[in-house]
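Subgroup meeting minutes
Present: P.N., E.W., G.H.
Scribe: E.W.

1. P.N. recapped why we're keeping a running log of single-chain structure predictions: easier to compare across weeks, and new members can see raw inputs and outputs side by side.
2. G.H. added today's entry (98 aa).
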Amino acid sequence: MGNFSQLIKSNTPVLVDFFAEWCGPCKMMAPILKDLKQELGEEVTIIKIDIDKNPHIAKTYQIKGVPTFMLFKEGKMLWRQSGMLYKNDLVSIIKKFD
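Output recorded in log:
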């Protein structure tokens, strides 16, 4: 978890996507996150965390369902939401904390 802890300490907002390979809505979020990265570029870092491969991180952040998104900046969690989201919603949330 050391690497994860370092990544979320960035001055740039870090959007974490907690997902699972077996999760249908998670798969549907992939192109949305790709579009988000294309639109915002260096304004945001997007990290995908597979809860089945990283159970310790999922437990630490009490992930009960996927997809769950969290936004971190300088190590602080600024926002959290479970379920599918639209790109425009994610852009608004990220810009609000920029």
